[in-house]
Amino acid sequence: MTGHQPARRRGRDRVVDLSVVIVAGDRAAPPTETIASLAAQDHPGPIETVVVWTGPGPAPAVTVDDPHRPVRVVDDQQRGRSAALNRGAAAADGAVLGFGDVHDRWLPSRARRQLDLLADLGASVVSSGVTVVDGHRVRDLPGVDGVVRYVDLLHGHDPEASPSTALVRTDAFRGGIGPFDELVGGGVEGEEWMLRAARRGPIPVASEPLVRRDRTAGVDVDRRWADREAGLRRLLALNPDVARDPTARARLEARIALAVAAQRRRREALRQVREALRWSWWEPRSIAALAVAAGVPADRVASALHRRGRSW
Hints:
Layout: E1 18-24, H1 32-39, E2 47-53, E3 71-75, H2 81-91, E4 96-101, E5 104-106, H3 110-121, E6 125-134, E7 137-141, E8 146-148, H4 150-154, E9 167-169, H5 170-174, H6 189-199, E10 203-214, H7 225-238, H8 240-244, H9 246-262, H10 266-279, H11 284-293, H12 298-307
Parallel strand pairs: 1-2, 1-4, 2-3, 6-10
Antiparallel strand pairs: 4-9, 5-10, 6-7, 6-9, 8-10
C-alpha cells in the first residue's frame, strides 16, 4: 500500500493502521465472530478493534493484548447508537476508522483493499458492496463501478450508503465530515453521515462485496419504529436537497409512512403514503407501507426490503 501513514495518539506506543468500532448491547451476543473476521484480515499492518458496550449488564470479556490485532472494550452507558459510535471513534488510535456490526463479517481482503483505495486515490472515504445472508438465501449486492456521488445516495444506492461498508480517514471524521449526529437514531444515523460525507465529494467504491451481513435472526432496529420515524424526519429536516428532489423526497416520505404504519397509526400512514405518491408514483416503499397499514407484519416487510438491498 502506498502513501498511508498510521497514527500515534495521546502518547501511546501503539501505532495502528485501522481502528474498527463495533457497537454491541444486551440483545446481542458478544461480537466474537466479527472480531475473528478482523483478526483474519490479510492486511499486514496493525488493526485495532474497539467494542463499545451499550448493554446494562457486564461488558463482554473480549479484550486482546496482541499488538498486531488488539481488542479493547469501552462502556457507553446506553446513550444510543450514534453516541456509541462517536465514543468508540474518540477512543480509537487508528489513522483510519471503520464501523462494524455484530452481524457483520469482514472478508479477509477488505482492510487491505479499502486502505489501498484510500491511499491510491487520496480519498477521505471509500465504500464497497455487501453480501446479505438470510437463512439459506445469500444475495450479493455489488457497489457501483467507480464512485458513488451525493445524488446517487439521495436516490438510494443502498449498498454504499452504510458506514459498515465504508472506511474514513480519522482526521476527516473528526474534522470536515464530522461525527455521527446523536439526534439521528433508529438506524438512520449511518445514512445521514454518508450523505454528509458524499456532499464533500464523490466516494470511491470497491464494487465487490467486502463484508458479509447476516440477517438470519432478523433486523434488530425494526422493533423500534418510533425511533426510526424520528430519525427519518430529522434526516429530512437536515437535508434540504432531499426536500427538493422528487425521487429522494418520495423515497423518504414512503419510509416514514412505513414507520408510521408499523406503529398502527393507520390513518396517518395513509396520509403519509399520499404525500409520497404526490412526489413520485414509482416509489415501491409506498406499496410496502400500504401493506403494513393493511395488516402485514412490519418486521416481515422490512426484512424483505433489506434482502433486496433497499433501505426501509
